[in-house]
Amino acid sequence: MSSRQQRIVEEYLHQAPRSVGAYSRRQFTKYLSFGAAMIAGSGAFADELMKTPALTEGPFYPDKLPLDTDNDLLMINQGITPAVGDITHLSGRVLTENGSPVRNAFVEIWQVDNNGSYIHTGSNNRNKLDANFQGYGRFLTDSKGQYYFRTIKPVPYPGRTPHIHFAVSQNGQRVLTTQMLIKGHEGNEKDGVFRGLKSPEQRNLLVASFDPMVGSKLGELTAGFDMVIGKTPNESEEGKIRGGLGKSLGR
Fold it and tell me: Which residue from 39, 84, 152, 240 lies 20 to 30 Å from 19 (Cα-Cα)?
């Protein structure tokens, strides 16, 4: 992240209330504007973008959704004790292959807590589950295709490198299931799921840098992850896409 991008992030976070979960839709839109600035300044677009590779959903998509399913995974409902972990502001855009933003795409994420436990009842380390970590969140993209989550930097657990699961749905149907890994993490090359992608170009599309946020007194991080989807049957001839929450397509 450039110094200019860091200043943009710092500016909007300085204006944010302590509880990100308390944001209104308008406030989120204002906050997310830094994501567009980051992408515009990065030269990310070409004539045709590569589609984001799909990766397995895995066995731990929540078998029972938490009472709170917003995009702030650090706080549950009106709780005052945050989850343990490195606070991460995760943002990005959902785009088509020609770089057009996908509005009203339903983005879901789920991940382990700082102890390596999912909220799924069959997860390991259930006895160490962080009761303050939501473990799952969702967000409807805005007119620029942007999404935002406040979560923790993922940690490894036996058999897997650190990662965050992503799912994107349109019209109630899942159109992308994938995972985001930490760029440069030593566990990536040993991870069986990640090694399933033979192309270095595809692997590069699924890693993100977790950069220190300039001026943060809490050691907060920022990470950006864009997802590119192809045209689906849910897209009308006019190019309009209506959002919806897709059901799990299996484990």
Answer: 39
